[in-house]
């Protein structure tokens, strides 16, 4: 069975990795974490490995593994995000507070909030990213309208 390509509201098709934008995605997070632990990026000692699980124009899901005491440096995404701890414990540093989340906990951040993430112990977490509008052009237009 072929997977229909995602279509932007403009009618343009998403052609790169269309299976990540199927009408239905069913993901076994336990199996995906096991696979990530076999990847070279995990074994070589960088302290982090990740895999994009869903990639629609306005929504992404990324599974991340981090070894204890590794960090994602301060950054922001021009989107709303959530961080769902699946294993371990994370420290998320925001501009005005520090939040620790343990396995089973979830936080959501509003649009473009700078943050860093540190694994306090070996951890796995799911990041979801949701942009306003579908295409890059639509997102930039929305961002301009908000300023």
What does this 3D model show about the protein?
- By secondary structure, the chain is an alpha+beta fold.
- It has a single domain, classed as Jelly Rolls.
- Helices cover 16% and strands 39% of the residues.
- It contains three helices and nine strands, in the order ααβββββββββα.
- It has helices at 29-36, 40-43, 136-146; strands at residues 48-56, 59-66, 71-75, 80-87, 89-93, 98-102, 106-109, 115-119, 123-130.
- Strands 1-2-9-4-7 form a five-stranded antiparallel beta sheet, covered by helices on one side. Strands 3-8-5-6 form a four-stranded antiparallel beta sheet, with no helix packed on it.
- The longest helix is centred in the last third of the chain and has 11 residues, at 136-146.
- The radius of gyration is 16 Å and the shape is globular.
- The protein starts with 28 loop residues before the first helix and ends with a helix.
- The mean pLDDT is 86.
How would you state the average pLDDT, rounded?
86
Which spans have pLDDT < 50 for at least 5 consecutive residues? none
Query: Biggest sheet, open or closed, and with what strands and sense?
Result: 5 strands, antiparallel
Number of domains: 1
Question: What is the alpha-carbon Rg in Å?
Answer: 16 Å
Element order: H for helix, E for strand: HHEEEEEEEEEH
Question: CATH homologous superfamily name?
Answer: Jelly Rolls
Spatial strand arrangement across the major sheet: 1-2-9-4-7
Q: Say what the CATH topology is.
A: Jelly Rolls
| CATH structural class | Mainly Beta
- What proportion strand? 35-45%
Class by SSE composition: alpha+beta
Which word captures the global form?
globular
What's the helix count?
3
Distance between the termini: 45 Å
Give the name of the CATH architecture. Sandwich
């Amino acid at each position: 069975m072929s997977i229909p390509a995602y279509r932007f509201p403009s009618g343009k098709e998403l052609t790169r990795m269309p299976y990540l934008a199927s009408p239905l995605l069913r993901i076994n997070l336990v199996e995906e974490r096991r696979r990530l632990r076999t990847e070279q990026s995990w074994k070589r000692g960088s302290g982090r490995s990740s895999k994009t699980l869903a990639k629609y124009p306005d929504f992404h899901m990324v599974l991340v593994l981090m070894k204890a005491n590794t960090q994602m440096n301060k950054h922001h995404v021009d989107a709303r995000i959530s961080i769902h701890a699946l294993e371990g414990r994370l420290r998320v540093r925001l501009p005005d507070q520090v939040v620790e989340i343990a396995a089973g906990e979830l936080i959501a951040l509003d649009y473009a909030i700078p943050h860093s993430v540190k694994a306090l112990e070996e951890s796995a977490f799911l990041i979801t990213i949701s942009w306003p509008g579908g295409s890059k052009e639509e997102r930039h237009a929305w961002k301009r309208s908000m300023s």
